[in-house]
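Chapter review: from sequence to fold.
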Amino acid sequence: MAEVTAEQVQRGRGPDPTALARRKLVTREVKSVRERLTSSTGLERAFDNELLRVFAEYRMNGSVGTLILALAVAAAACLWVPIERVTPWVGTVLLATMVIVVLSRRFLAQAAGEISIRPWRRAFALAEGFHGISWAMMLFVFAQVDGPGAKVFVTTTLLIVSALTVMLAASIPMAVYAGIVPIMIGIAAYFWGRTDMDSLTTAVMAAAAQLFFVFLANRLYVSSVSTIAFRAEKDALIAELETANANSDEARRKAEEANLAKSRFLATMSHELRTP
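The token string follows.
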């Protein structure tokens, strides 16, 4: 913002507010376009950084719940499957969860200016893919188990995991798809060739739920971007207001100094004129 001098205040002139607003708008738009051109998502770099940070924070906060869910499911799976078959699977799930936690912690420990967006987004997507595959391996554990109770248990568990993935990883669509696609493929393979009514009903409900999760993931991503955009706009407006207040205070101070100097000059001249 152009500086308003004391002389301009005294003469009643100052920089044109319309021109200043236009220049600030053009500068902001140029900066925004430049950042979008260098971004792989079409968003500004600050937005990409914030979306990755949201993912890491959500995954860190949800890691304990994910571990508890895995252990609870493993304990319940022992009702149908020997523990010797359950242990390797749940160990893989716990390992995949810890990989995401370690990556998230390393990301949050980095300064914002040192973060490379694309490598981190790719790393998070690969970690989510590994996590989804580890949960989909549950279908191999139950491959030889028959009965409606086992089918409902497996399907319900995987749908819960898909829902958690959508909620925790919604800020990175690539990671969401990497996490739920293995589960979708696994469920389809699990029910492939089954013609009984229970299997068909469960398969249709699972497919509908997965489609809803995809839709929900897109809506959550749009909501996250909108929230970050509104917050950035608010911060920019607050910064401009503080700058305008500072410039106004400076202009008022200079005007007061000019008035004081003028008063002193007039007093001195009056004294000189009265003195013979």
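Two observations follow directly from the output. The CA atoms of residues 73 and 157 lie 8 Å apart. The two ends are 50 Å apart (CA to CA).
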